Sequence to fold (259 residues):
Amino acid sequence: MMHFEFQVEGGNFIKAGSASSQLKKILKQLNVEPKIIKRIVVAMYEAEVNIVAHAYKGDIYIDINTEKIEVRLVDEGPGIPDIELAMQQGFSTASSAVREMGFGAGMGLPNIKNNSDELNITSEVNKGTTVQFVTYLNQ
Amino acid sequence: MLKLKEMKIKEVVEVLNAKVVSGYNLLDAEVEYCFASDLMSDVLTLQTDNLLLLTGLANLQTIRTSEMSDITKIIFVRKKRATDEMIRLAAENDTILIECDYSMFKTSGILFSAGLKPVY
Fold:
């Protein structure tokens, strides 16, 4: 069982993706299959960019065992008033700065779902959002 | 018309009259598919291997998105230029960056005619 933690700064698009990049290196070293690495890091990167785009700050907790990887992203931010609506493809509240970075098309949460085996989102308005996903390593 | 199955990156650079700014060691690598997008969210939904990315979005997140998507070949169109920071990050991930002065449409047309395949 391995555990890793990363911090994410809201609004910092220079650093956005550095946690996902580190996770990718870890998974490569663990000899996880490239296709599964891609699923995990794409889901993680989408979620990391979401923190940068919407929250003030966030913490990422990662647990890996031989069977699965569990990623939990906990942010302090405005929260999501209607998670079902946020899960709809094309729905976005992203700023123009986020769109200039190539995101904000309302595709992030649906893509996390497509790239994970289990997804749970909980949120409290004006407090923050927790995104948790699980991907099985032997598929 | 004879369609090539794969193209070498140096052939891509030649037909586009483009300039390589990072990752020269990939000039002999071959590429079969191409995807053109300024929206990184769309790039992140792709599952194709050995993909050449055409984009007019030149910032750090273009490089990060490619890293996560296992894309190591990027062409910036519309005279967009890679910054030093982008080149540094691309080098870390063994990625070739190419600058092309043509529009997205012209670049896509040339590469399509040359035989590169669309992802969908």
Summary: The mean pLDDT of chain A is 96. The helical segments of chain A are 18-29, 34-54, 83-86, 96-100, 108-114. The CA atoms of residues 96 and 104 of chain A lie 8 Å apart.
